[in-house]
Amino acid sequence: MSQLSAQLAASIGSERAGVQALVEVLTAERKTLAEGDTDRLSDTAARKRELLLHISHLGEQRNRLLERSGVTADRRGMDIWLQAHDRDGAARTEWRALVELTQTAHRLNQENGAFIQAGMRANQQALQALMNASAAASTYGPGGRSLSPVASRSLASA
Fold it and tell me: Contact, 67 vs 73, CB < 8 A?
């Protein structure tokens, strides 16, 4: 195996390890969201950002190595490179694991985003109900009488 091929195989392994760490953070984020522990979310977000930057750097490195190997920096190029240079199948195993982990990370991120959106909608509805209740309780007309709210909504429906 040439030095360039060894570098590319190592790069794929490093990228897979980075995405594995991201999957672990996304899984922890899911648990944090389910527990309602919003204080820990900022730490999780910072760790995700750090990992994403690292993974992006590793992906760029892999793409440069593919191009230096004379193939395109895409899946087709990777398949061509693996077929030509991965005699023992180790890089192909790492590549498949990387692709699968990337799909898992994408799915987890989408699900966590949906979970966050649902929580934000519920919070917005509760806030609106409280604002409506507050406005109804403190609004008086010119004669000193309470004004009825335009749109009343019970707190139970929020």
Answer: yes
pLDDT tens digits along 136-157: 555 666 776 666 555 555 555 5
Distance (Å, whole) CA 98 – CA 107: 14
Rounded to the nearest 10°, the torsion over CA 113, 117, 119, 124 is 160
Helices 90-138 + 75-85 axis angle, to 10? 150
Direct distance between the N- and C-terminal alpha carbons of the chain, in angstroms, rounded to an integer: 64
pTM of the prediction? 0.75
| Domain made up of 3-112: CATH architecture | Up-down Bundle (1.20)
Enter the DSSP assignment of 155.
Answer: G
d(CA 49, CA 21): 12
> Hey, which residues does 140 pair with through a beta bridge?
146
Which one-letter DSSP state was computed for residue 147?
A: P
Q: Which residue is listed with tokens 């190595």? A: 65
In this structure, are residues 51 and 24 in contact, taking their beta carbons and an 8 Å threshold?
Answer: no
Query: Which residues have CB under 8 Å from 52's CB, separation 6+?
Result: 22
Q: What is the DSSP letter of 140?
A: B
